[in-house]
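Good morning,

Attaching, inline, the backbone tokens for the sequence recovery test we're adding to the shared suite. The designed sequence is right after.
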């Protein structure tokens, strides 16, 4: 059964959001076109990134917990990760947008983004020799800068709320992937290529990795919707 652990985590992550996708209030399934474009763009970027990092020993996968099939040297479970995680995280983002009508982080989204950009740039440049830290932090800073200064995205407050809540299942699923509750990690990391700071078993870089790939997905998810953001009228009112 150990060979199905990573696959089981993928299916567990997808299960509830997929079952609730057809719920009449959210109608998440109606937003699939933009969602799957976003996932496709994100997955193209991150699978290439993943394959290069795996080939260079930045991280790797424990065959003890894999079913076996690989594509471009990445286990099939890792390919599924880039479908089920953004699908589930964007579901959280959408559910929060529906149920939390007030844009509680709207006013702080821009200064928070600018502060994050500065911190990520400084840490990334100071640790340019650590490839996971440098690429993750600098890429995330660039993505945030694009949204703040070029796109001027009105949904950043909503995004931060969704991201913050997504960190809860992230700590559960990614914690298990990195060795929490297991004899060995499913995904191992070369600490010479990161800061060596762990949140339980999770490298701190993974939190920014999640922010980057989720924001990239949301960028394309929101484009075809062309909807209002900020504070919304109560449920049931136009």
């Amino acid at each position: 059964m150990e060979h199905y652990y990573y696959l089981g985590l993928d299916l567990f992550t997808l299960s509830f959001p997929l079952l609730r996708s057809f719920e009449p209030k959210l109608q998440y399934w109606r937003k699939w076109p933009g969602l799957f474009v976003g996932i496709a763009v994100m997955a193209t970027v991150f699978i290439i990134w993943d394959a290069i990092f795996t080939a260079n020993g930045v991280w790797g996968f424990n065959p003890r917990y894999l079913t076996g099939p690989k594509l471009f040297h990445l286990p099939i479970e890792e390919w599924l990760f880039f479908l089920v995680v953004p699908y589930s995280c964007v579901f959280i983002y959408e559910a929060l947008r529906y149920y939390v009508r007030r844009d509680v982080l709207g006013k702080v989204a821009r200064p928070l983004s600018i502060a994050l950009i500065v911190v990520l740039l400084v840490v990334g440049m100071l640790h340019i020799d650590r490839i996971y830290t440098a690429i993750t932090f600098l890429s995330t800073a660039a993505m945030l800068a694009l949204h703040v200064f070029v796109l001027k995205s009105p949904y950043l407050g909503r995004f931060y709320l969704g991201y913050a809540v997504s960190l809860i299942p992230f700590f559960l699923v990614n914690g298990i992937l990195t060795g929490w509750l297991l004899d060995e990690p499913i995904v191992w990391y070369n600490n010479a290529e990161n800061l060596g700071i762990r949140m339980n078993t999770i490298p701190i870089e993974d939190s920014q990795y999640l922010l980057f790939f989720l924001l990239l997905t949301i960028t394309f998810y929101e484009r075809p919707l062309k909807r209002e953001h900020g504070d919304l009228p109560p449920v049931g009112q136009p």
